[in-house]
């Protein structure tokens, strides 16, 4: 006994040392080691010591830790005790729980005492539960404090069912679930009796002013409700009803103190899925009863709230929100329980509409989720609209294809015109954010609680507005005429209010907020996939009349301020799909756009016109939108648009940037007119550009050497002229045949059919010259000779810096880059910013031009010399910044790799990839070494920030390093894609797992022409730096990069298995195998651990009999013995299962590394 007391004293000291902040690290470490030795030492010493320390004479901190030690014993060392010792531990633990059941004990000790008994009950198993439950039921009858402890234990008991416990195996979890289910006839009546008893006692004691006793009984009620919540998630709903749990909770819905907990139980049960066994009828009955209860309570709340909002406090609203969630859960999961009764359904929908209309945002939001879920379920899936034959079920608004069953049709018919109108009215009104409401309008909206940045718990405004728009779209699909009428009336009203407003700019926010709603409704009704033309003529006529009237209002507006015109143009944009079906209105629409364009000033030197410039660009962009939306309806007006463009250009009132956007719109229009007209439009647009672009004079003056480009940067008009030429090349390539397939691979048309093919020969050579001299700016020998303002312009833009830091740019993020075309204010800072924007823009658009040019067949590869391209683009690669290399790879190199014809791999890929891989390997290796060893990445990028921002610099440097790392391995992943490796067979086809027949091995050269990875491995100059990058990626702390490199390494391993190349096999068996295992030691690779384990499995299973290295690598692990490896090989040989082999390899690696492979350990704990 003396030894036990001494040990307890030592343990207590160790606990206090661990908790004491003033303890040294060595003291704390020694204390932790001592405590761990007690937990892992003699189990009886652990038990006796813990029971000593839970006594009242010790401090709360020590007692709490002692309870946790006992829980550890029960959870992990229970089997070491004899049956008698187990029984004694049960009795002592229940006695402890009884002892802490007094008003003086704090809640954590009570909770841990209950958790200990719950842990014991789980370990004892169902066969011993009856005796324990009898004891606990008897204890709960002793008073409210004892009942509270028993109820807390019952709450903890099913925790391993509702919460995942890594220590609990699947069989034990199933056993626990089965045992608890069998025990529900004892548990649920006990819960009901305790709930009824202590609720009544709490009310009685409160009535006699016995506050302390009333609180004890109330605490027992709360504990009981918390316990019921733990069972409501999984216990059969009919059982919850049968034993009075649901009726007891329904009674508490009228109690202000307990209604929130009771409603939480209702919410959980309402979301339970309907069973498929014989208890369906009982389940439906229980849900129907709950619905009636919730309906009565919500009716009373909505009535009180509508008659006097001041009578409702925040507690009422919290309860109402939970009640609304319960009703929404019922409708989303178990609507079939009430949908058969139209009267009941009508009441339900009206109440959910009441919540949706409620001025409180929280209630409205929960109802919004319900209406979205309901409408998604009721409306046909393939088509968003089910008109245009009419409104409502009687008019056949639901698609007649039979996709919606009769039950859903019946429910959908209940969502009548009035409900649809109300849904739209509320949605329109709530499209406005509180922060944007002008003061005058804010008063008129009271007490409506609009979305605010201060509102917590519901996400951001953007996703919320998207939900409103989706509901508007679904409603427009169901009731097109109602939706059209409502939005038209609202927009016309807003226009009239704005025209009458003394300060229209202040009131513009409301008008601006409704544009997306109009856009959504018009797009839904007149979307081509909805077969609008197939509807009835009456509906067509009604819709035309509505939108024609609205369009007339929009066309008649005469606003002059840029802000008003910008919103005006947004509304015109929204009408585009309508014009597709009514082409006779297109002419007046286009005339209006030109009228708006010419009404705005075009002076470039006046800073006050910046808003006008932005609006002019917005108007020009509208031509693209109308060309897309209206399709062929715009084609007859192309000549008129061209004539107007020519006139404005001749008058000097159309900027090059605006001309480019209108030209892009022309390309979109031409794509609807056919290939011949598209070719003619391209020639018309590109011929004036080519006349300047191909001239030798400007190329000799500006592109022959770096100083020439310096002169170009001082010739601002010509500099921006070149920029606009390059950006139009980019637009022409994007709009003239370039596209992506669903698989993400580039779809390439033949040179003869692609309208841009014969233009590449004159477009690309000057561009390559431009890039050669542009890249030279960053070489040290050239950079030091540049003027100061140009060196300053080579630094990052503010937008780039804020992006790297993940911060919002406080400045106008697009303003300078979009409008900068020589219109700076004349200051030196303005000139630097102008050149900086030009350098950034010409690089981005130029790289895009090169990348897009590769996607139109073989033209790019045939008209250009690979060596010249490599020299022009790679000559100064060593001086390029990481951000530029990343962009270069992403927009140019990836496309060259993806689209290069197989018969031209030899002449192109080696030349282009060799210098890139060499430099990236050296640069990334050096930068990662700095980051991992010194805490700071070494990158060459010019940030252009003042000193004193070291922390931000470090963040930006690391982001640049990770971005480039991920981009280069993404290139590797692209090279390893199946489409570029068609000659590599699938190794384990149809589940076959085993060693490869040696007689089938081929030379690596056989894969040179049908596998890009095979081609790469045949060229050592290119392969060595690429493979070195792959090896190092596994040691860099970037899980995303590891994911991509695994794809490439998988093909490398496959080729090592399928070929007889000794050098490749040696690399994979030793270097790659070691690197992958090292990668498993990085916690950042936890998400990729299955892929890494599979690489290890493939290397060992398929190569260990052909090379000694795999065994040597595994035996070099610190904890792996030859016997362990032999046992693994025997087990792996016996199973043909891929899954089992992976599991065996995973276990072997964990064993061999002594559980130090953090990627596997982290994955296990996730």
| Cα Rg | 37 Å
Mean pLDDT: 86
- Tally of separate helices: 56
3D shape: globular
Strand order of the largest sheet: 1-2
The class by helix and strand makeup works out as mainly alpha
Percentage of residues in helical conformation: 55-70%
Strand runs, count: 2
Tell me the span between the first and last alpha carbons: 43 Å
Strand content: under 5%
Uncertain stretches of 5 or more adjacent residues: 164-169, 382-404, 738-752, 812-820
Instruction: Report the sheet with the most strands, covering strand number, pairing sense and barrel closure.
Output: 2 strands, antiparallel
Task: Write up this protein.
The protein has 1166 residues and is an all-alpha fold. It has 56 helices and 2 strands. Strands 1-2 form a two-stranded antiparallel sheet.
Question: Which SSEs are present, and which pair or pack?
Answer:
Elements: H1 2-19, H2 25-40, H3 43-53, H4 60-77, H5 83-99, H6 107-124, H7 129-140, H8 144-156, H9 159-162, H10 170-207, H11 211-232, H12 237-242, H13 245-252, H14 259-270, H15 280-307, H16 314-333, H17 342-357, H18 361-378, H19 406-414, H20 417-429, H21 439-445, H22 461-478, H23 480-500, H24 508-513, H25 515-525, H26 537-556, H27 562-574, H28 576-581, H29 586-599, H30 610-630, H31 638-651, H32 656-673, H33 675-693, H34 696-702, H35 706-714, H36 716-735, E1 739-740, E2 746-747, H37 760-776, H38 780-783, H39 788-793, H40 798-805, H41 815-819, H42 828-853, H43 859-863, H44 866-874, H45 882-899, H46 905-934, H47 950-975, H48 1012-1018, H49 1020-1033, H50 1039-1058, H51 1062-1079, H52 1089-1103, H53 1109-1115, H54 1122-1134, H55 1138-1152, H56 1158-1165
Helix pairs in contact: 1-2, 1-3, 3-4, 4-6, 5-6, 6-8, 7-8, 7-10, 8-10, 8-11, 10-11, 11-14, 13-14, 14-16, 15-16, 15-17, 16-18, 17-18, 17-20, 18-22, 20-22, 20-23, 22-23, 22-25, 23-25, 23-26, 25-27, 27-30, 29-30, 30-32, 31-32, 32-33, 32-36, 33-36, 36-42, 37-42, 37-44, 42-45, 44-46, 45-47, ...
């Amino acid at each position: 006994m003396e030894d036990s007391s001494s040990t307890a004293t030592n343990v207590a000291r160790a606990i206090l040392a661990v908790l004491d902040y003033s303890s040294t690290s060595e003291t704390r470490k020694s204390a932790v080691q001592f405590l761990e030795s007690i937990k892992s030492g003699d189990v009886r010493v652990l038990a006796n010591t813990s029971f000593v320390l839970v006594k009242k004479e010790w401090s709360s901190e020590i007692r709490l830790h002692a309870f946790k030690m006992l829980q550890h014993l029960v959870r992990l060392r229970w089997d070491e005790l004899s049956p008698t010792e187990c029984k004694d531990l049960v009795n002592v633990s229940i006695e402890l729980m009884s002892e802490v059941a007094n008003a003086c004990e704090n809640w954590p000790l009570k909770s841990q005492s209950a958790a200990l008994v719950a842990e014991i009950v789980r370990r004892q198993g169902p066969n011993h539960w009856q005796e324990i439950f009898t004891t606990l039921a008897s204890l709960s009858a002793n008073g409210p404090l004892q009942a509270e402890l028993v109820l807390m234990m019952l709450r903890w008991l099913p925790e391993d069912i509702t919460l995942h416990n890594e220590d609990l195996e699947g069989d034990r979890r199933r056993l626990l679930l089965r045992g608890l289910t069998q025990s529900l006839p004892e548990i649920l009546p006990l819960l009901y009796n305790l709930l009824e008893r202590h609720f009544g006692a709490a009310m009685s004691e409160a009535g006699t002013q016995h506050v302390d006793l009333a609180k004890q009984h109330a605490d027992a009620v709360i504990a009981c409700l918390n316990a019921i919540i733990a069972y409501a998630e999984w216990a059969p709903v009919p059982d919850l009803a049968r034993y009075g749990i649901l009726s007891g909770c329904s009674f508490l819905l009228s109690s202000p103190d307990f209604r929130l907990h009771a409603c939480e139980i209702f919410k959980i049960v309402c979301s339970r899925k309907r069973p498929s066994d014989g208890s369906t009828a009982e389940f439906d009955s229980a849900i129907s009863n709950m619905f009636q209860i919730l309906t009565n309570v919500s009716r009373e709340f909505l009535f009180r709230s509508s008659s006097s909002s001041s009578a409702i406090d925040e507690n009422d609203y919290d309860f109402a929100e939970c009640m609304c969630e319960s009703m929404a859960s019922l409708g989303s999961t178990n609507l079939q329980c009430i949908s058969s009764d139209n009267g009941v359904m009508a009441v339900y929908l009206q109440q959910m509409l009441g919540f949706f209309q409620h001025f409180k945002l929280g209630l409205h939001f929960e109802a919004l989720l319900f209406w979205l879920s309901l409408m998604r379920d009721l409306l046909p899936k393939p088509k968003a609209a089910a008109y245009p034959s009419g409104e409502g079920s009687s008019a056949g608004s639901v698609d007649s294809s039979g996709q919606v069953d009769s039950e859903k049709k019946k429910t959908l018919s209940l969502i009548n015109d009035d409900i649809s109108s109300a849904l739209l009215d509320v949605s329109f009104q709530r499209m406005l954010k509180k922060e944007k409401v002008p003061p005058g309008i804010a008063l008129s909206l009271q007490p409506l609680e609009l979305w605010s940045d201060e509102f917590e718990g519901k996400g951001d405004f953007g996703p919320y507005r998207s939900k409103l728009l989706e509901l508007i779209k679904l409603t427009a699909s169901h009731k097109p005429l109602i939706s059209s009428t409502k939005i038209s009336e609202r927009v016309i009203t807003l226009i009239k209010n704005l025209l009458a407003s003394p300060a229209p700019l202040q009131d513009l926010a409301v008008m601006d907020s409704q544009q997306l709603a109009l856009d959504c409704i018009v797009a839904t009704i007149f979307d081509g996939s909805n077969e609008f033309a197939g509807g009835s003529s009456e509906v067509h006529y009604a819709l035309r009349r509505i939108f024609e009237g609205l369009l007339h209002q929009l066309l008649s507006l005469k606003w002059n301020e840029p802000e008003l015109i910008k919103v005006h143009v947004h509304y015109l944009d929204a009408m585009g799909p309508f014009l597709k079906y009514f082409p006779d209105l297109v002419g007046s629409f286009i005339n209006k756009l030109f009228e708006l364009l010419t009404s705005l000033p075009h002076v470039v030197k006046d800073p006050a016109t910046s808003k006008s410039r932005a609006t002019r660009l917005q108007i020009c962009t509208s031509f693209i939108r109308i060309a897309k939306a209206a399709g062929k309806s715009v084609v007859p007006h192309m000549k008129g648009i061209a004539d107007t463009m020519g006139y404005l250009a001749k008058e000097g009132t159309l900027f090059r940037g605006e001309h480019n956007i209108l030209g892009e719109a022309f390309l979109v229009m031409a794509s609807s007119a056919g290939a011949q007209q598209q070719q003619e439009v391209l020639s018309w647009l590109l011929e004036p550009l080519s006349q300047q672009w191909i001239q030798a004079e400007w190329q000799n003056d500006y592109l022959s050497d770096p100083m020439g480009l310096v002169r170009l940067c001082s010739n601002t008009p010509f500099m921006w002229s070149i920029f606009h030429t390059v950006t139009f090349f980019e637009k022409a390539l994007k709009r003239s045949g370039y596209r992506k397939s669903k698989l993400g691979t580039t779809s390439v048309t033949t040179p003869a059919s692609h309208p841009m093919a014969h233009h590449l020969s004159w477009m690309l050579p000057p561009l390559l010259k431009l890039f050669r001299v542009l890249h030279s700016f960053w070489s040290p020998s050239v950079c030091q000779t540049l003027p100061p303002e140009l060196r300053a312009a080579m630094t990052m833009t503010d937008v780039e810096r804020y992006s790297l830091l993940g911060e919002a740019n406080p400045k106008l993020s697009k303003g300078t880059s979009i409008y900068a075309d020589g219109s700076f204010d004349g200051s030196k800072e303005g000139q630097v910013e102008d050149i900086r924007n030009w350098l950034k823009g010409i690089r981005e658009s130029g790289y895009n031009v090169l990348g897009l040019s590769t996607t139109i067949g073989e033209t790019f590869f045939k008209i250009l010399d690979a060596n010249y391209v490599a020299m022009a683009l790679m000559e100064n690669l060593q001086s390029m910044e990481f951000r530029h290399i990343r962009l270069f790879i992403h927009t140019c190199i990836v496309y060259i790799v993806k689209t290069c014809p197989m018969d031209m791999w030899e002449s192109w890929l080696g030349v282009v990839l060799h210098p890139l891989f060499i430099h990236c390997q050296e640069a990334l290796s050096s930068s990662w070494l700095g980051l991992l060893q010194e805490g700071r990445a070494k990158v060459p990028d010019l940030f252009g920030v003042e000193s004193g921002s070291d922390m931000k610099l470090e963040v930006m440097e690391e982001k640049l390093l990770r971005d480039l790392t991920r981009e280069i391995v993404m290139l590797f992943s692209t090279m390893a894609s199946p489409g570029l490796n068609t000659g590599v067979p699938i190794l384990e086809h149809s589940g076959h797992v085993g060693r490869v027949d040696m007689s089938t091995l081929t030379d690596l050269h056989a894969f040179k022409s049908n596998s890009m990875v095979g081609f790469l491995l045949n060229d050592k100059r290119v392969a060595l730096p690429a493979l070195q990058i792959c090896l190092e990626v596994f040691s860099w702390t970037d899980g995303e990069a590891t994911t991509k490199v695994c794809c490439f390494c998988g093909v490398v391993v496959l080729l090592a298995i399928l070929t007889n190349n000794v050098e490749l096999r040696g690399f994979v068996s030793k270097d790659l195998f070691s690197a992958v295992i090292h990668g498993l030691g990085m916690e950042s690779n936890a998400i990729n651990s299955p892929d890494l384990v599979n690489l290890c499995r493939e290397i060992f299973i398929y190569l260990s009999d052909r090379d000694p290295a795999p065994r040597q690598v595994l035996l070099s692990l610190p904890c792996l013995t030859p016997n362990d490896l032999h046992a693994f090989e025997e087990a792996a040989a016996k199973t043909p299962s891929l899954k089992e082999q992976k599991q065996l390899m995973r276990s072997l690696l964990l064993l061999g590394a002594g559980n130090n492979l953090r990627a596997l350990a982290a994955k296990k704990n996730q």
